[in-house]
Amino acid sequence: MNLSSKTRLKIVTFTTLFPNAQQPTHGVFVENRLRHLVETGAVNARVVAPVPWFPSSASIFGRYATVAKVVPREMRSNLCIEHPKYLILPKIGMNFVPSWLVSASFPVLKRLQAEEDFDLIDAHYFYPDGVAAVELGRRLNKPVVITARGTDVNFIPRYPGPRRMIIAAANAAAGIVAVSQAIKDAIVDLGIPAGKITVLRNGVDLKLFHPGGRTEAREHLKLQERVLLSVGHLIERKGHNFPIEALPSLPGFTLVVAGAGPERNGLESLAKRLNVQDRVRFLGSVSHHELQKVYAAADALILASSREGWPNVLLEAMACGTPVVATPIWGNPEVVAQPEAGVLMKDRTAEAVAEGVRRLFRNLPDREATRRYAEDYSWDDTSEGQIRLFDEIIAKHDVG
Predict the structure, then answer these.
(1) Domain assignments of the chain as residue spans, ordered by start
(2) Could you tell me the CATH superfamily of domain 214-377?
(3) Helix axes 160-172, 131-140, angle to 10 degrees
């Protein structure tokens, strides 16, 4: 696809959710959307992706040491990424992070504006990123579009201070993008007019994620039984414990867990307590490109999350021919909408996982049919929608 607006759009994508050399999978969904947008030929983009400041890169400091190693500027996917460092105080600084983001990022955006002026700020995640972006746009006289992605509008607004700032930013933004209808509904529930919100769901990279190499992948991973897969950070809300707890009632199934995080030791202990440790494989962190082999090797993906805006893992698995079993929350029903895609659990329990797996395998869809379903979710429509929205907003801003 090679779209072009009348004039090539110049945007700055502003977000703390963007990969870097130290965290190559962090916010990869934002990078993917931007990369496909730029590939249309209609948009020039630069990225400002702030990272927390930390004084030491000594390994004893764990993830804080990791962000301390992030360089001020790098190139990814032919995009120039700026990484200003902003102050963050864990647990006590939540209400102040937007202003700290502004202080760290304004000099960088001012420099980018001087080097080559841009038309619009494309912000991802409402809090703190979108709140900070609106203030940056005010200072630079640039319109701001904020993309809401999930917990930024269905969880964070439970806190009074951030809720007020999110509502103020939503009202001040030139446009809002929701990655699913469920997320749009959550924004409307905050009192924002529905007409201000555009639903542009995430797509899937159909070249990267494909069904090929299934036999080789299973041999490489030494998989023989029916294989269930759970992908994502090993944190509570991803619910990796539920498929583990379901295994005793699913004889003949192996579970592969792809991801890293603080819950790993607890999950390994859980598998031992249930005496299913021989049927659970922990792969640790898997790069985005290597995930294709893992998806292709699996017979079904389990997504037991408690909150999701538009879960990319579902479409990635389907693009590899692998159907899914997913919790019936937020954007999941919009993704799992036909039998060839998979099934939705009745609720979020181990029993619901087991029942969903049994239901799926009683009428397991053909892997080619699952792939064809995913092919309706390329990035083309999303990119076209972004370009139309950006064009309209820039035209209004220029007239104003």
Answers:
(1) 9-203+379-399, 214-377
(2) Glycogen Phosphorylase B; (3.40.50.2000)
(3) 40
The residue with tokens 């309209």 is 392
Pairing of strands 175-178, 144-148: parallel
Chain centroid to Cα 365, Å, comes to 26
Predicted pLDDT of residue 1: 45
Decide which of 56 and 20 is more confident: 20
Helices (H), the chain: 28-39, 63-68, 97-115, 131-140, 151-154, 160-172, 181-189, 214-220, 241-246, 264-273, 291-297, 312-319, 332-335, 350-362, 367-374, 380-399
Residues 291, 270, 155: CA angle, nearest 5 degrees:
65
Percent of the chain with pLDDT over 70: 98
Q: At 298, is the secondary structure helix, strand, or coil?
A: coil
Domains 9-203+379-399 and 214-377 share a fold: yes
Where does residue 115 rank: exposed (0-12), middle (13-18), buried (19+ CB within 10 A)? Answer: exposed
What CATH code is assigned to 9-203+379-399? 3.40.50.2000
**Strand-pair partners of 255:** 228, 280
pLDDT at 3: 45
Give the tens place of pLDDT for each residue, 139-174: 999 999 999 988 899 889 999 999 999 999 999 999
